[in-house]
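Hi support team,

I'm filing this because I wasn't sure whether my run with alpha-D-glucopyranuronic acid finished correctly. The job status page said complete, but I'd like someone to confirm that the output block is well-formed before I use it downstream. Pasting the exact inputs I used:
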Amino acid sequence: MKRCKIKSIAILLLAALTGPNASMAQKAVNYEESKVTAFELPALLVSKNGTPIKTAQQWEKIRRPELLEIFAAQEYGRTPNEKIAVRYEVLTENRNALSGKATSRQIRFIFSNNGKQTEAILLLYLPNNARGKVPVFVGYNFKGNHSISYDTSIIYSSNFMRVKEPGNPDWARGCQMSRWPLDFIIGKGYALATMCYHDIYPDVPGYKKFGIPSLFSGYDSLSAKPDEWQAIGAWAWGSSRIADYLETVKEIDSKKIAIMGHSRQGKAALWAGAQDKRFGVVISNCSGAGGAALSKRDYGETVEQVTKIKPAWFCAAFNQYRNNEQALNFDQHGLIALMAPRAVYVASAQEDRWADPKGEYLSAFYASPVYGLYGRRGLTSMEQPAIEQPVMNDVGYHIRKGIHDVTLFDWEAFIRFANKHFSLTNGS
Ligand code: GCU
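And here is everything the job wrote out:
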């Protein structure tokens, strides 16, 4: 625990160095609403050749594929079509998890292709008192499956050991349990499927060779084409592989899969939801730049900062927009619109100015007309709702008090939102 605290302090320091302050060396970060320069968003409901998009059918046939192509070619990179073999091994099952309220399983995914192999471990909790199949939340954790609980039977994945603490990976046990309120989630009748994001793409420079992209034909660790997928693309791909597995689990209702991602994983959850319609509810928590927040709104983190913090989240083509957001012929409202007509929820935190809460809201607001094409209800006001007053239409939003984090307040809202869209009443 002590170790965990030291780590957190180190991370805060690092954030101070790589975050807002570090960017002083680049362009100063704007945190003043009055200094936000006027910007114009590219129209969503007009196709590339100028055709107005007036129906859901036109959206599906013309504009949606155009936007998917733009995000693949210019921001997240293309997801390869090549099929990767995957084998599942159920490593453990505990029918008495969470004091008997849940069954937990740990499942090893073994991906192989071209004579290479990588592994990931899924940690799955299923409520024991379910009367039928259960809905499920999918989400990556940052510090290993064992970081979400003190349960000592939770094992580390091999990539976590590689990248995080070769000598003593146990420092993270239970470290992020506040972000994963298991009793609450299970108590509401949901299953939870979580995996460490490093298993799919280690988020540490120099470790790409242990990630999923290394299995694909043509992989070259040293050079990347401008539209080649990087970390966010790979994490999104991995979420779809989790969905594949969940479709095989008899206790799960595979028509009710929600995906939730925080911060960089909020960016990846949106990209996963855009590409994979099995995610019926898509939730971005504090995803900020390159996630829910509008890039053209000059507030908080910029394209330059988000593409420099970690070299390998976005495809190389996105770098052309560093300090050049006005040249973008797309913006993040288009990403959110790709979820339509499925339910999408954007959550912000009041003190998370780096992620630009207002820019996150406006993005969801400007995506909303696309929901209108389906007769669905998006966000109807340009004004952000008051603090901790969630709006839950087909596009939902809240801003809560506090910092960049995932809290019980957030989960309460996510579950209420998912209940609404999965037509469930359990526990809410
Ligand atoms: C940094 C980065 C953000 C990102 C966050 C995270 O703050 O600038 O864009 O969302 O890290 O993922 O933790």
